[in-house]
Each structure stands twice: as structure tokens, then as C-alpha cells.
Design a protein that fits this description.
2 domains, 5-stranded parallel sheet, 31% helix, Alpha/beta knot, alpha/beta, elongated, two-stranded antiparallel sheet
Amino acid sequence: MTFHVITLFPESFDSYTSSSIIGRAVRNKKIKIKFYNPRDFTEDKHRRVDQKPYGGGPGMVLEASSVIKAVEKAIKGKKGVKIIWLTPSGKQFDNNYAQKTAKKYTDIIIISGRYEGIDARVKKIFKTEEISVGPFVLTGGELPAEILIDCISRQAKGVLGNFDSLEESRTASPEVYTRPEILEYKGKKYRVPKILLSGDHKKIEEWKKKRK
């Protein structure tokens, strides 16, 4: 599985994509993450890719041509590519979407916007799907892109090591405990629920389900 990210700030991904599970998946070649900076595809000598919006308004808009060239570079020679356009007004991203995407596609292009957004003609030229990670607005699409990469990658076998570790595929609980059995803080004792110490797996599973 290869993620192709269109972004003005590829360096903002360095820490996250090189650490923990995602970093290990990259090193073990379970996934690949490639970056395409629109600045590398502009003809402007100053590498400028933003322009004032037609119709007026605040902020700047990313020009279509450099983004189009970046997407073309990502698509080149590939079939059945998924192109995701990140926007607060898009379809809500969730685990179900991640699972379907991981099963169907090996190349996923994620277009990360900045400023006031990207010239809308880009999504008219390419068959894109507008996706949102939540009902809020962020400075850019880099953080949402990391969320997509993390969630979709987890669905690929070998990324987690043990595929049964997928929380969404087993009975998990928002309440988890580990040693010590009794934790003392400021004179008060906090105990692990007795049911978790009982060894009765059926009752433990029922306890978890009630708290999901």
C-alpha cells in the first residue's frame, strides 16, 4: 500500500511517519509514503503557488496547475488509484471507510489543502472523493492526512504485527487497567475492578461490552 500525499509541507510529516507503528511499517516495507510538493511543479521562479481568489475575499487560494501536475506525477502508470480531497465539508471519515479503502486500493492519493483552499477545478478534472476528519477547520490538511494514513494503514496485514490487535475488531473497553492491583494516591486507594481479576472470561467480556 502506497500513500501519495500532495502537500506544501512534507517536512511536517517527518516525526509522525518515522515513529511507532507507522514508522515500523515503513521500515518493514508494509506501506510506503511519498510526498509531492506543488512548489516543485510550478513555473514561477519564486516557487509561488498561491493566488488571490476570484470574486474577492480574504486569504489566498492554491493554483490549480501545480496541484494538477503533482497529482499526475502520483498517478503516473498506476490503475485504480483512490484520490481523496480533504475538506471540512466532506464525507465523515471513519473506520468503515478505512477498511473499505484498504481492501480495494493499493495506491491512495491524499490532497492536503492550505490557506483558503485549492482551486476547485482540480477536483473537477480528477475523480476525487471529498473527506473530512471532523466538524472543524484546521490550518491545513497535513494533520488530517496523517489521521487517514494511520487509520487506513492499520487495516493492512502486517502493520500491527498481530492483526488481532485491531481494537475495532475485538471487544475493547474505554476502561483498561494494569499492575499494580491497588494504586494509592494522596491517601486514597484505587482498585482494579474485581471482575477483571476473576478469571471468568465470559463475565469479563460482558463487562467490556457494557462499557463500549
